């Protein structure tokens, strides 16, 4: 896609699922990829291997795409400053940030502990803010254009009972996207989000591996199937590219129609 070759990208939580697919896709598009992970170094190494294979085939040494694995917990300010500095040191600059790291936990809201409420928000929302802030500081210091893409969720707008902190984090991500987009539009820093619907990744292991549960999930999706990480990565590549040069402050829903009020497929009100 236009304008991606040679761009330096940091993807948080890129050792699995959607983040891994984004790393692979952006490497294929010619970006230099920094793969952030928190815990699983082996998975991060696998992401790097897959991405470099897809981008370079047998020519890893000469293909011009660079990769870097960088450990850090997005909820920890000092670690994120270190992560961003490492990427800038190694690649020379940072052009594109993908805020992908996220967790979800289930609990009836009246039983949800303060610590658990904070944990999800610290990673999903505060982490995205910290990474965005440090990236924007860098871009402004170089008077450089750039792009931030937040991985939100259909729960940016759909309430999700028993996943209170997750819903709040993604709702907040919607406004993080819009507010930063408005604040930095005149500095040519674009900020957008994608909002995946149900996607086949480790976060959904519970229903992916159970055919009955999977059928229930898919019965709620107008297109009748869950999405793939690759479908999410394609939209990220588009938003990061110059094809989307005039798009900022938007959340792109990629959900097989999940946000179309599926209950209205058939008329049920007079
Ligand atoms: P996943 O569990 O495979 O990916 C989440 C990644 O974030 C993991 O690699 C995990 O190690 C990493 N992570 C967690 N806490 C971290 C921290 N503190 N610092 C750094 N990394 C951390 O699941 P996924 O589905 O690929 O999720 C990726 C993003 O997509 C998440 O933000 C999630 O909310 C969002 N999303 C997923 C779906 C879906 O159905 N899979 C739907 C909507 C939104």
Model description:
Belongs to the short-chain dehydrogenases/reductases (SDR) family. InterPro entries: NAD(P)-bd_dom_sf (IPR036291), Sc_DH/Rdtase_CS (IPR020904), SDR (IPR050259), SDR_fam (IPR002347). This protein is of the alpha/beta class. It has a single domain (8-262), classed as Rossmann fold (3-Layer(aba) Sandwich), CATH 3.40.50.720. The protein has eight helices and seven strands. Strands 3-2-1-4-5-6-7 form a seven-stranded parallel beta sheet, with helices on both faces. Helix 2 links the parallel strand 2 and strand 3 (67-71). Helix 3 (77-91) runs parallel beside helix 4 and helix 4 (114-141) runs parallel beside helix 5. The radius of gyration is 18 Å and the shape is globular. The relative contact order is 0.15.
Radius of gyration computed on alpha carbons = 18 Å
Can you give the helix content as a percent range? 40-55%
The percent range for strand residues is 5-15%
C-alpha end-to-end distance? 48 Å
pLDDT < 50 stretches: none
The ligands found in this model are:
nicotinamide-adenine-dinucleotide
pLDDT averaged over residues: 96
Q: Tell me, what's the shape? A: globular
Number of domains: 1
Strands side by side in the biggest sheet: 3-2-1-4-5-6-7
CATH homologous superfamily - what is it?
NAD(P)-binding Rossmann-like Domain
Strand and helix order: EHEHEHEHEHEHHHE
Strand count: 7
Name of the top-level CATH class: Alpha Beta
